[in-house]
Amino acid sequence: MGDVRVEHTPRTVGTVWGLLVLNTLGSTGAETIVPLPRSLIQMVTMGALVAAFGLALAVNLRLRGRPSAFLLLLSLLLVPSLLSSADLSAGFGALFRCGRFAVFVATLWLLSRWWDGSTTFVRFHIRWYFLVLCSVAAGLLLSPGAALPDLYGGRLVGALWPLTPPQIGQYAAVVVGLAVLLVLGRHTDRRSAALVIVPSLVLLTLTHTRTATVGLLVGLVVAIGSMVPTSSVARRWFGWAVLCAAVAAVAFGSLLQAWFLRGQTEENFTTLTGRAKVWDALLDAPRSGAEQLFGVGLGDKSFGGLPIDNSWLAVYHEQGLLGVALVTGFVVVLGAVALLRPPSLARACALFLITYCGLASYTEAGLGDASPYLLHLALAASLLVAPAAPPAPGAGPPAPEPVHRSVARPARGKGVA
Length: 417
What we know:
Layout: H1 11-23, H2 38-59, H3 69-76, H4 78-85, H5 92-111, H6 120-142, H7 144-147, H8 165-184, H9 190-207, H10 210-227, H11 232-251, H12 253-261, H13 266-270, H14 275-284, H15 289-294, E1 302-303, E2 306-307, H16 311-340, H17 345-360, H18 372-383
Antiparallel strand pairs: 1-2
Helix pairs in contact: 1-2, 1-6, 2-5, 3-16, 4-5, 6-8, 8-9, 8-10, 8-17, 10-11, 10-17, 16-17, 17-18
């Protein structure tokens, strides 16, 4: 893919991003108000991916892109995925997941043409995930019993689309974190941000998700801390946040502890709700040399019928040590590039996303396959791309596209979405 010049982002690109969000929602979760067959959900999510690739190709027929270490390493991750899935020991589903992963990565390559270090894709991200959260809120209003089932201990689930509490918590935390940073960077007004942040925080609280809550808090500390040297607003927010956290820890320590324990026994809490037992069994399982190197093939991120709930062990299980090395590579590269960038809003957003995904990777799977976590990291990569240089003086205009032209975005207000 060749170099690109500075250009406006077509509105179609935002639609493609939304289709990628839809594809990564998954097909399993809570029972919905209107029962949805899993085959129908899979058809919708896979159709969204195919449509995303088709639209991305339609607006980028010349296959222009912004090469990056993140995309290169992500593409190389397809190698162990394919090698481990080719012998069909994990069934035809593994090859199907490899194909899905390949189309997902190819779509990101096509979209990279418009990665320019701006907050354009941040707004896409907030808009589409907030739309998902709106569907969760609608389900809660329509049927509180279905949205807060006893099966999940009264935690919020998706009653219209099958979403689990950790999924909803993840989406809410990312939306809140990015919206807060846009306010601090003065890229949106407080009223518009409040309309997104307040309901998202309410939904996050109802999910009772510890990983998302801790990831949001730590991610914001890292991101806002990176803005402190150059932003007086960030310094004020950071100071007030530290003060409020100290007061809350003293005044509501017992309540916070009870919320964090979530009624679990000490043994259940120390084993991370049984996750540690699955992890120990996975690591103790005998493996051949090829399985250690390349894994057993892309699956549903489970072992012995139980969810792995750890990105690194899931990658080791399905893509082997080579997969772990590649995932470590693109996470470390993103973190290093973010730390080397001068302070800016784009850098702060990228640091928030990298920190959040890094923390969540301990109790959630998704870094080795098409997932919201890879989409978060792709957004971070788009924010860390150096802006393209404008055309040299006296240079002619770029050659027109053979079929489709890039359409300039309409003027917007300073809303979050």
